[in-house]
Amino acid sequence: MTWFFSSWGAVGEACGKTALLVLTALVGLRLAPRRTLAELRIFDFVVAVAVGAIIGRTATAAGTSFMVGFGALVTLLVLHTLVGRLRFLRRLKRLLDHPVRTLVTEGRIDEATMRAAQLTRDDLDGALRQQGVDSVSEVESVLYETQGAFTVRRRDRIQEQR
């Protein structure tokens, strides 16, 4: 029955390592520059998954010490901060971030850009509905932002501003 319960010592070790690693992650993420969930880039997502994997693996692996997990976690958080700073270099920014794409201009859908962004008409229609737009003809432009959000500019709002 060792698959279900090995010993209280092993349970306590896993709990202790988990608590220490979560605290390490919280401190490391708190010291890193602030980013909101809506602004997650691909490297943010990779780091989030890796942090969870390190904590989970280190906490439950009997042969892995807290210090091994701590070292991996700190290395990951330092690399995350470094990559965030490297995004300010133009060549690396292009490598790390998706470009902003204009999907709709003056009510006309750019099919080639939609295909390049791997978006369907249903994806676009859903984004428009979320903004309270019933038809593409009501739209001046739709931008597909770097982090995957849609920016919808209505024709009536642009005319009001002029």
What secondary-structure arrangement, pairings included, does this model have?
Elements: H1 8-31, H2 42-60, H3 66-86, H4 90-96, E1 101-105, E2 108-109, H5 111-116, H6 121-130, E3 139-144, E4 150-154, H7 155-161
Antiparallel strand pairs: 1-2, 1-3, 3-4
Helix pairs in contact: 1-2, 1-3, 2-3
Nutshell version of this structure?
By secondary structure, the chain is an alpha+beta fold. The protein has helices at residues 8-31, 42-60, 66-86, 90-96, 111-116, 121-130, 155-161; strands at residues 101-105, 108-109, 139-144, 150-154.
What is the mean pLDDT?
85
Task: Work out the radius of gyration.
Answer: 23 Å
Physical arrangement of strands within the biggest beta sheet: 2-1-3-4
Shape: elongated
Unreliable parts: none
Number of strands: 4
State the order of secondary-structure elements, H for helix, E for strand. HHHHEEHHEEH
The biggest beta sheet reads:
4 strands, antiparallel
Estimate the strand proportion. 5-15%
Number of domains: 2
**Separation of the first and last Cα atoms:** 75 Å
Count of helical regions: 7
Structural class: alpha+beta
Helix fraction, binned, reads 55-70%
Give the tags:
4-stranded antiparallel β-sheet; 2 domains; alpha+beta; elongated; CRO Repressor; 162 residues
